[in-house]
Amino acid sequence: MQRRDLIRLSPLVLASCGAGQVAYADPAPVTVTAAIFDVRQYGATGYGKTVDTPAINRAIEAVAAAGGGTLVFPAGTYVCFTIRLRSHVSLYLSSGCTVLAADSPKPGETTGYNGGVYDAAGPAQPWEAYQDFGHNHWNNSLLFGEGLQNIAITGPGLIHGKGLSHGSDSSRPGQTSFHAEQAGVGNKAIALKNCRNVLLRDFSVLKGGHFAVLATGVDNLTIDNLCIDTDRDGMDIDCCRNVRVSNCTVNSPWDDAICPKSSYALGSPRSTDNVTITNCFVAGIYQLGSVIDGSWRRFTAADRSPRNGRIKCGTESNGGFRNIAITNCVCEGSKGIALESADGATLEDVAIINITMREASDAPLFLRLNRRNRGPVDTMRAGTLRRILISNVVSHDSAAVTSAMFSGIPGNLIQDVKLTQCYFGHAGIPTTDMRGKSIPAWQSIRVPEIEEEYPDLNRFGATPSQGLFVRHLQNLEVSHLEVAAEAPDPRPAFWLEDVHRADFFAVTAPIQQPNFALHNVSDLRIAWSRAAKDLNVQTAADQLV
Q1: What is the rounded distance in angstroms from the CA atom of residue 448 to the CA atom of residue 222?
Q2: What is the rounded distance in angstroms from the CA atom of residue 319 to the CA atom of residue 336?
Q3: What average pLDDT does range 77-98 have in this prediction?
Q4: Per residue in 461-485, pLDDT tens?
Q5: CA pair distance 186, 140, nearest whole angstrom
Q6: Taking CA 144 as the corner, what is the angle to CA 285 and CA 85, rounded to the nearest 5 degrees?
Q7: For residue 10, what is the DSSP state?
Q8: Are 133 and 146 contacting, i.e. CB atoms less than 8 angstroms apart?
Q9: Cβ distance 316 to 365 under 8 Å?
Q10: What share of the chain is helix, strand, coil (3-state, %, to 5)?
Q11: 188-193 vs 211-216, strand pairing mode
Q12: DSSP 3-state assignment of 85?
């Protein structure tokens, strides 16, 4: 790209330089470079056959050397291995542009498409055992950046991770299986580490590998108007601060859609703070690619899709979470919304407001505080899950095996949860659980504690309640909640176990006896409710209401 002519600024001429006035010298010449660059001028073809990575990386280096600017990808298909991002460089993916991930090496091979490979994953770190392989490595990605600032990927183009591994040995229908740990294999569409001032906007990602977007230690991150149609996680926001995710569509049947985490991947615990997720649509029922192409083809029962696609905060939870707002989102055919602290993290000050769900594959809400404690011994501590406000959640036709669940563990209680203005509609009592096992009568169901395992709802099996299962919690307020079953369900609406100071006001459930099962409960008040008569309970060891 040619530099513009040097521009000499006009001198400021003073009519006089008397007392109190300042004479200014002529300014030095200023070189103004072009702000817009075309990737084809550096040798990229966009033909879809040749590997364009060397030309693209040359172009990025040239833009960075010029002080920054926007590198435009005109319409075309750019076959690539690892694209290395640089500070102050924005990529603009034009309409009709596809950045296509070249095929990774197959098992037993050393090179992929046209003899190319993705950047090496990087050396093993002492803390790799504390999170998945993909969380410990960023370089082996289609687009990669570390230690950068002021970067952006924007425009209506497509990132197609065709040649990326999804990090699993099982092959997805119609896809080639690659092994993420094998040298030369790429397993992420976009990976950013220790960056700041990042903008991702308007593009689409098809088949994003293990992560369509993995942001670790990224501060001041804006993700807006992305369409992600992928075979593993949509977005993992790990150890990040000041994050805005808005107006995004994520279809991720086999894994989570939008997932804040706080892992140990940076070698020390770092919290994820000040995160807003708003105006997003997440799903787990559409076939891969059908959201991007607009056909919206649903999986059939024979496909046995896991229907994940949820919004989940946790799983990796060493550093903690503070100030999280999840608002105005729509969830379809996915797991519900989950808040999880398993590795000693503090998860606090969370608002979940204005959420609609249809066909949730398990329960609409899952709050979990346990002690898996996957991390260095000297960092282990009792986790906390507290100050959670949930309001205006509408869930229709969810699976009925498990009810919504708020569960701590003995001696470590969830604290201060408010649940208001919600509707939980479910299919009615099933005959088999999520693993196909017969479900006994609700009086015989015993939900395991699972204190030290992976924090996931489907590990608990069926619950003896149809609306809300609460265990090991202090200070609960539930108001204007309706539990509705499409088919008869004899289970109580509410199960409370090791719960202390709980208020239920104006709650509605199918008229039956009992609707409350109380086990080691103290300071309970039920008032103005259709689910049960007004009641004040000081203590209840075992009581049905």
Answers
A1: 40
A2: 23
A3: 98
A4: 999 999 999 999 999 999 999 999 9
A5: 5
A6: 125
A7: P
A8: no
A9: no
A10: 5, 45, 50
A11: parallel
A12: coil
